[in-house]
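It is worth pausing here to work through a concrete case rather than discussing structure prediction in the abstract. The textbook approach is simple: state the sequence, then state the predicted structure, then interpret. We follow exactly that order.
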Amino acid sequence: MNKEVGHHHISTQLTMLGRNPDEQAGFVNAPVYRGSTIVYKTVDDIENKRSRFSYGTAGSPTLENLENAWTQLTGAAGTVMAPSGLGAIALAFFATTKAGDHVLIADCAYRPARNFCDNLLARYGVEVGFYDPMIGAEIEQLIKPNTSVIFLEAPGSQSFEVQDVPAIVSVARRHGIKTIIDNTWATPLFFQAHAHGVDISLEAGTKYLGGHSDLLLGMISANADTWPALRQAYDAMAMLPGPEDCFLALRGLRTMHLRLKEAEARALQIADWLQARPEVSRLLHPAFPSCPGHEYWKRDFKGSAGLFSIVLNERYAKADVARMLDNMSIFGMGFSWGGYESLIIPFNCTDYRTATQWQPGGYTLRLQIGLEDVQDLIHDLERGFERLNAEAK
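Step two, the predicted structure:
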């Protein structure tokens, strides 16, 4: 790890982290190491595992390059990787919970994370509770003697509530509770989770780190107090990604800041246009005052990503929304985001919220703004709104 890299601006750091041409025969990019078996020279070496990597599940130079880069970028004590963002969530919980514990999950969290906790973690004797993401320091009222973890997601998946992370972390620390945050939306470029006191920060590298919708990856970074437990859980499970995905992630790292800033600029422009449209009753974008927790975003974050939601006027029916979305020419419909292509999906949090009620007042759409020309995207949305209004009552 090059300690001098941290003195540079972020765009420069991203070109330097996770590679060392002096160790790569001068080649700019690190090679891809594929393998399972590590060969030892002597009996003493193999008995004492005297090797940089004891076996393929312990990692490889390719994986280590990515781990080191992410550790330095996040300001963590260490990083491990998982084959997906959901895998990262699972690993973080396995590192911080045991049978008999109680965990608190933000009600706005990524739905597969909720399903993991409700359907799997609970089967192993962990009590799961959900809380209003806007609760702030009042979360103290929900803490039990056996509470071991508070899980945050800021902003919330689909609904975009921005949590008061410092307030929740402060309460957790007073009670000796670990905090985990899903920081996929902001990335370390826009929100430094560990600098705000969070113990474990996880992200789906599938999104902005990969940037091209062609890999699945999860990253889990931890502070010094939590790192040993995270590494122990990782070593016990050997749940690591493949070398090609790590190579693609390292390649994506070089342009992540440029792509994220471009997505931010395009999303802000389109969000501003959307909030003036008569079809839209509310804009759920952390950079705008209409979004819950906007003041926390303004205080704690350095930027906004290309993902946000809108609430349509209540007069529109499901058939109107389907007519709009079924014929988009640029926006596709898909469940991921963070790539170069723009996406739009309908969503409804009503069925699974338990600590809060989801009552937006109309159908809701989530938009991922990619790298297409803004005017082309606006034209596509304009035509979509024409279809939306064609038969609406």
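Step three, interpretation. The two ends are 62 Å apart (CA to CA). The longest strand covers residues 147-153.
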